[in-house]
Amino acid sequence: MKIVTRSFLRYLPRRFSLSLLQLLGVACGVAAVVGMTLAARTALTSFAQAVEFLRGKATHSIQRPAGPMSEGLLTKLAHDSAVEWFSPAIDRRLRLGHGELVRLLGIDPFLDRTIRPELSRVRTSETRSSHPETAFSFLLDDRAVLVDRDLAAELGLTVGQRIETLKGSLLVTGTFPNPSGEPLILMDIAHAQKLYGLEGQVDRVDLILSNESAFRSRWKDGFLIQSGRQRSGTFSAMLDAYRLNLEALSLLALFVGIFLIYNTAMFAVVSRRRDAGILRCLGAKRYEIVVAFLTEILILGVIGGALGGLIGYFLTRLLTGLIGSSISNLYFFLRPEPPAWSYWILITGIFLGFAASLLGAFVPLVELIRTDPVKALSGRVGSGQNVRKARKTAVAGLCVLAASVILLIPRKAHIYVSFTGIFGIVVGVSLLTGVALVQLSPALKWILYRLGKLPGKVAAGNIRQNLGRTGVAIAAFMVALSMSIGLGSMIGSFRQSLIWWMDTQIRADLYVGKIDEAEVPEDFYEELQKIPGLGGVHPYRNVQVMYGDTPVYVSAIDASVLQRYTRFGWLSGGNENWEAVKRGGVIISESFSRRFGVQSGDTIVLQGIHGPTAFSVGAIFYDYTTEHGLVMMDRLTFLHVFGDRTINNVGIFIDPNNPRREDLLSLVKQKARERGLPVVTQAGLHASILDVFDTTFAITRSMRAIAIVVAFFGIAGALLTFFMERRREFGIYRALGFSTGQVARLTLLEGLGMGMVSYLLSLVVGTLLAVLLINVINLRSFHWTIFFHPAFEPYVLTAVTAIMASIGAAVYPIWKVWRTYPQMQIREE
Amino acid sequence: MVQPIIRIVDLWKDFGGDGTFSPALRGTNLEIKSGEIVALFGKSGSGKSTLFNLIAGLDHPTRGRIEVDGQDLVALGEKGRTGLRRSRLGFVFQFFNLLPTLTAFENTFLSLELADRPDPVVALTALKEVGLQGKEHRYPHELSGGEQQRVAVARAMVKRPSIILADEPTGNLDTTTGDQILRLLTHRCRESRTTLMMATHSPLTCRYATRVLQMVDGLILEEASCQEFNR
């Protein structure tokens, strides 16, 4: 290895603690990206595998636009010349006794073996020999089920044992291989119909068609026919906004990681300036210095990247579960398994670390190439030059800001453009940090002097004089703190908006039944209606339908009850908007309106059982049920158009002044219990919605934390570099009479000072970020309005984080001061 | 007529910015013959280091011409000037300027590697010639000031340059050590007929110089002897 390169690389082990800090910073940034990307990809792959597995050999599926369909149609399907094979299915969720939610598929075992041959590889005993009694019990016993092998192993179940569920105990008569990874239970379709109260009905029929166009021409009215690709596309489309935001989060983490590498590279440039000057004097070419410098940075990047890949893999195990839960709560059932270890994860981490190093080191490299050896040796790359450089950088920052604002202006711009604009704003503001620090220096000096007297004054001066180092560390920390404030404010505002929304719409005293788990039989609904004294009995149905090629949701409600008992948040108008619904019109959610450009007074067309049906839009309301869009209509209208009598839940409203209020509530609960139906109070439902919300944003919170950790390493690295390169200066302090305690205080105040400046700048940037996330990103990703609710919490939490991180970053340098300061002397070399 | 190894004609260097005029060199003229050992005296700020940086091609003159070994430095271009420093020029600094992460041997060997003549034996011999045999594997912080300057001398001499520029080579050393360094440096230069130019405050240097110059306010004056500086 060339000695020029060796002279640079020897700094790595020599300054081991600093190298370690820098390495860990890179590793954390890479880990965040690897973890998030891998988790998201695992979830989506799992979803794709599950869809593929469940689709089997079916080319198409047919179902009603909403709700189950009569099994009487099976005869017609059997006689349709375009149908080569068909298999009806009940596709529902089942909550197990210990709380886990799994998919239950009701199938006709004879018809289904052509569509899903894998499911027919049933093992009915622990030995290879089959037991005829057990095999037939699947057909004969109405509580018999087959369980996928992974689920059975997880629950410790064997053939003949019972599995407890909220619909009673079920008998395990066999297991089957399930390559999709999604927990699955199979039941004979007739027994599944009985279990879910769907006698005479099926959810859909999976088909193998020989002539799609002919089939569609015969069945187009009143049915939804989807090819396998369309079905996958439907599911995929539902995840679009969510996936995009996950990608943005991981890119944000990478950005902070790249910033840290830039930070690291800048430190290296400043530290190596003198060495570079000596080498240039001795005749080293610029490219030799570049190679040496790049080798050092790339080693950190590659090792950090490898470590990051490893940490990212473990992070994936946490994030996969979180993402799966979120998707299941918000969209459709998904339980992805964490990915198996692969050396590609390590290679990906190395590649990311390598690429991030190149990107982060680019600007510092240009600076190193341009280093004037004369000035470098004389040490006159001093404050004047740093301030000039900071001004030039600020000009570049202003240009980036201007370009970013331009990107954010067009309302109909693609969401990627909006994300680019936000990143640009963060980068642009980072470039202004140096100038901001210069302007804030007098105030910083005043504060630090109040805190620490003379050491404080010296600390403020040091921060200002070493702009090349401190500016970059402060910028990186500021970005992380701004993310914390921005995301915290956005999440807080969203939460408050959600609470407001729940207060407008979810106002029943009790809710009987649970969507996708426990439907309410219609006769029970009628029984509840007959209870005297109840203010309102509200049947609710929520179902996914297609609006063109796009999945949206339709809710069936009782307009009279909601008009009386709720306070919907309308974009315009008030409760008089319900009159349109009572007359057969619809109201739409804000996300539907924005997504499809539909306004009040417009007409929309939905496919019902009688074919396309037009609806007049009466009003638009604020809604957070789904970002895909919600159409709300009266139950009578819904029954006429879709023929679906399913009731997902029933809301019970009781006038607050009713003296029999408590008795009535108890009566309803008792009746529901007798029917085996879950009951939840208004407060309980609000709480569970907020739980879902908090779980969904757990991922965002974890990214916030990682960004703070990465930036912490930046501050810690800056302080340690300060210490290492100022031994001569410490010798002067000692010669002048500074005590060890004073120098330790000085080091602490340097850290605190940088943290303070970072926090101060993040107040502005973080608030701006929150406003942009709420008014731009959320609006353009999810098409709904979040109301900005300024709160102290994100600011206070971030302040505490800034202080603790600054103090934490100073701990090691302070320890080094206590250990080594008493021996320090002024030595020229 | 033998061409001078260094030739400077009407050299100006102005560091003033923002419209101010602050020349470090004011139309300096100089010719140094090959093999001469020149002592350049001058107070701080008189322009000695500026002159050395210009001769080494590390800085650019505002006006004037510099020829080193018959080549116009401006015309050489950056690549040519780098090549000059690699193979024809040696540097000895006041504050030694050894690379802290390299051993004495590696600091010396670096010169040979840059000159594309990587021969460890030559490097070891150079260290032996400056009296550092047995200390090849020590790092700069493990050596005394005098030892570090010896390494710097070895580093400069090892590639057999035509010219050595020594900027205050004894400025950071005590009198005895400084004298030893001067003796070593001038002796090695005489042996190899290397031209040596030393910027200095120390009257000791006079003893070893064949020619004495004084720098005053950016101009070079020829002095006959060192008596002026010994007073």
Question: Can you characterise this structure?
Answer:
The complex is a heterodimer of chains A (829) and B (231). Chain A is of the alpha+beta class. Chain A is built from 29 helices and 20 strands. A 9-stranded mixed β-sheet of chain A has the order 6-7-5-8-4-3-10-1-11, sandwiched between helices. The two termini of chain A are 26 Å apart. The relative contact order of chain A is 0.11. With 231 residues, chain B is of the alpha/beta class. In chain B, 36% of the residues lie in helices and 26% in strands. Chain B has 8 helices and 10 strands. In chain B, the strands form 2 sheets. In chain B, strands 6-7-8-3-9-10 form a 6-stranded mixed β-sheet, with helices on both faces. In chain B, a hairpin with an 8-residue loop joins β1 and β2. In chain B, α3 crosses α4 and α3 runs parallel beside α5. The longest helix of chain B has 18 residues. The N and C termini of chain B lie far apart (37 Å). The model of chain B has no long low-confidence stretch (mean pLDDT 87). Chains A and B meet through α1, α11 and α14 of A and α2, α3 and α5 of B.
